[in-house]
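Lab notebook page, bench 4
Experiment: in silico fold of construct C2
Operator: M.H.
Input chain length: 123 residues
Purpose: comparison with the prior construct
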Amino acid sequence: MRTAFFVFLVVTTGTLGEISLTHAMKRIGEVHQFTPMAVLRAMGRAFQQGWMWLAFALMALSFFAMLELLTREDVSFVIPATAASYAVGALGAKFLLHEQVSRTRWLGVLLVSFGVALVWLGK
């Protein structure tokens, strides 16, 4: 039960962190020049976004949950099990970021989800 909780925590907080980061970066816009000054300006705009700070917090929580998970389980279980984040990411992209997700991508998510189920069954 504790393992399932930490897998859930890693998957959800990591994926929501990535979605928050994407939202923040889309709000600041594309960086066209990669001069030191342009990069610093883009970073300054990014750090003014609340979504960026939320992303940092969620990703940090995911990182520490992953550390805890790795102290309990084999890496051969943890890495495939946390691949469930691909499914959560596709759902988040579709419903939170309103991205178009093609049928081919949904098929890929289904295949990954099937693999994650196999890993859980083999535990």
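Observations: The chain has a mean pLDDT of 94. The two ends are 13 Å apart (CA to CA).
Next step: discuss at group meeting.
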